[in-house]
Amino acid sequence: MEKEQPEAPALGAFPRVDRSTVTVGNVSGESDEKAFWLSKTPLDRLEAVELLRQIAFGYDPTTTRLQRVLETAEFPPR
Question: What is this structure's pTM?
């Protein structure tokens, strides 16, 4: 049984960042992020990576395909 491919989010459909909250923490201390991501399925992890990739590099469904160029070559008659 094949799984359905998730649809790509529309432009502007990415989660908004709440900039009103700021937390300060120690980056050298233990984090629970590893346990969080290990508790997720591989598919959930891949979807999260894809979302981060789209946020970082932009996503526009109209430009996701390669442009096709048609060229004609004329040869001299034999």
Answer: 0.45
